[in-house]
Hints:
With 382 residues, the chain is an alpha+beta fold. The chain is 68% helix and 7% strand.
Amino acid sequence: MSKKSKKKSNFGAYFQILLWMIVGGVCGFLFIKYSENYLADAKLSIKLLSVVAMVICLYASMIFNLIVHEAGHLIFGLMTGYKFGSFRIFNLMLLKADGKLKLKRLSIAGTGGQCIMCPPDIVDGKMPVVLYNLGGSIINLFFGAVFLLVAILCKHIPVLFIVSVIFSLVGFVTALMNGIPLSTDIINNDGYNAISLRKDPLAMRSFWVQLKTTEQIAKGARLKDLPKEWFIIPTDEEMKNSMVSALGVFACNKLMDEGKFEEADNLMAHFLEIESGIVGLHRFLMVCDRIYVEAIGQCRVDVIEKMMSPEQTRFMKQMKSFPSVIRTEYVYALLCEKNHAKADGIMAFFEKMGKKYPYPQDIESERELMEIAKEKYFSKNA
């Protein structure tokens, strides 16, 4: 990651921390005032219960605003011509596949939820993107205003006033965190994406390709089955746009699914070296793919250990249930550590996870990659 990109990521992370510190400070202030007025003579147990109640209220407000945020993307997406694809809160995902709604599990680092829509066609190089991307923040602002109004009207009812203020404050903070353009170590937020899309026609096309690819995968396709013209490799200059850079990442993923490992590795190595807008999530997953290619190829342990940086290791722990991460752990155990028993345990976990994973084609692809590694292991240890 370039110094410039790292500064942007640090600013985004620090800004989010600052906002949540403000929320914590307001909650603390409200509790002190409430205690002074209503709990001065109360028992210690009552005061402790009040603290617990406020913490529960804070978490409830965060979950509520997460749900309405993703619902905002859904509402404004439907209003502007998109169709329902999937709706995820934490690791619970409602997915439309084969014309039916299915409940699956998926967890992605850096995200509490996600609403993915099937995009309308691009007409004259344009498609509606702003309302879909900012719909979540708009709904958060709306509910923030509603709860603020309730707080003003109910200021003489202490408990209702405090609850309303907390829900209002968290609503406004959630809107700011997602609406003000920010880039963090893992992902870019909605506001950042909206600006990237408005700046560059290629970014808009890349956004369409990302959503269309997800739609096709939900219908049963694999990356190797999709049109080659969707995955045109951007120039180094074009890769500086975070939304366009995803197109380059998808091109690498397609090459991996096609079994063109050396070509994929060369392209990934190049993308990871240049200054680009590739988000942290994609960077770490690309490193997983590079570890795999090295392991089934020359299998230079020192090269692989260098790629397994503390940041990479931490990310893989966060994403331990993600198919390509499990595949990487499997290959590392089998070909680098030469621990067949450990690899079998990882394979068992992979199969268990695969039953709940939303996209069976991804599981099929990863299983094929793991079989290649297994064949190499037995050919060397026959």
